[in-house]
Amino acid sequence: MLLETLSNLAGPSGFEGEVRNFIKEQIMEFVDEVKIDRMGNIIAHKRGQGKKVVVAAHMDEVGLVITGYNEDGTLTFQSLGGINAKILPSKPVLIGEKRLVGVIGLKPIHLQSEEEKRNFSYKTCCIDIGAIGKEEAKKSVALGEYAVFDTVFETFGEGFVKGKALDDRVGCSILIELLKENYTCDLYGVFNVQEETGSRGAYVSAYNIEPELGVILEGTICADMPNIPKYLTATELRKGPAISMMDSGSIFDYEVVSSLRKLAEKNKIPYQLRKAVAGGNDASSIQGSGEGARVVTISVPCRYLHSSVSVCSIQDYENTKKLAISYLKTIG
User: Fold this and answer.
1) Of 243, 197, 239, which Cα lies nearest the Cα of 216?
2) Running DSSP on this structure, what letter comes out for residue 31?
3) Are 39 and 193 in contact (CB under 8 A)?
4) What is the pLDDT of residues 70-82, one digit of tens each?
5) How far, CA to CA in Å, does 83 sit from each of 33, 61, 75, 243?
6) What does the pLDDT read at residue 181?
7) Band of the pLDDT at 27, cuts 50, 70, 90?
8) Tens of pLDDT along 199-235?
9) CATH 3.40.630.10 placement within the chain
10) Which residues pair with residue 295 across a beta bridge?
11) How far apart are CA 82 and CA 63, in angstroms?
12) Which CATH topology does 63-149 take?
């Protein structure tokens, strides 16, 4: 399964090479040109006579970067992207291209003060690699190495999958499939880098392409869980792709959103409106680059984003792909 392979690859912000190499191999035969820009974005062009359209997904995932060594041989680290410190303790990680095994350590709860139980941060955690002393740790791991969560993609339940980096490997997987189709518009499939650290890659790709329309494929927040008020659920699994109206970086084009909704209803594709404005994605970079562009985001709802494991529905994934492809075929 394409999504499984993408999820299991390592590619935190600034270290997307493994993901980039795989995607490039998958799309070469379906596009007219593939370029890698200086930032490391993949720009895949399917030449057409119509409107210039960018369909974008980001390759990077949230991860960690090694910042130092403790005297006992454990490592200090910081985040690449937004990871809540509360989810870190006891998570296994893989460090660098060699996939060195580590475990994120924290003082046992039995020894923590009440203050420590309430508040802890990256400074109170470490990564244990089984080294005895600082010098041994230095021989095993270089400063600046990345780490990703050691999570293996799996199916479970009735049509659900779990894995790391579903934000945004779901978007990358759909975009690969989308590029296998034919369209009238002048289409650029763009796999951006460093979205999780400020959508830096998208600024560069959008500036160089100068699209009229940007369609962003994402994995988005889903909180359809017990004890969460309905108005905070944002999206729900098995309710179809989520169409965004607004987020922290963009107000999405009303006419494009309306066209998507009408198309979904016409083709009996279930969809939902994303009922939250928190978070952002590459849309803001595309919308505000050069002379600007109309933008819209179509997302696969994913539970537990920016953690060691996320969950999505294959049904939602397939319907998101169907809606995106159907919409692009309407653009001249």
Assistant:
1) 243
2) S
3) yes
4) 999 999 999 999 9
5) 36, 11, 18, 24
6) 98
7) very high
8) 999 999 999 999 999 999 999 999 898 888 887 889 9
9) 2-61+164-328
10) 214
11) 9
12) Elongation Factor Tu (Ef-tu); domain 3 (2.40.30)
As assigned by CATH, the class of the 2-61+164-328 domain is alpha beta
Mean pLDDT of 243-260: 94
CATH 2.40.30.40 occupies which residues in the chain?
Answer: 63-149
Indicate yes or no: pTM above 0.90.
Answer: yes
Per the listing, tokens 């089984």 go with 130
Burial class for 98, CB neighbours closer than 10 Å (0-12, 13-18, 19+): exposed
Region at 97 (left for phi over 0; alpha for psi -120 to 50; beta for the rest): alpha
Number of other residues whose CB lies within 10 A of the CB of residue 306 = 18
Tell the burial category of 251 from Cβ atoms under 10 Å away from its Cβ (0-12, 13-18, 19+). Answer: middle
Report yes or no: 77 and 64 within 8 Å, Cβ to Cβ: yes
Q: Determine the 3-state secondary structure of 112 from DSSP.
A: coil
Distance of CA 199 to CAs 59, 76, 155, 196, 217, Å? 11, 26, 30, 6, 14
Which residues belong to the active site?
195
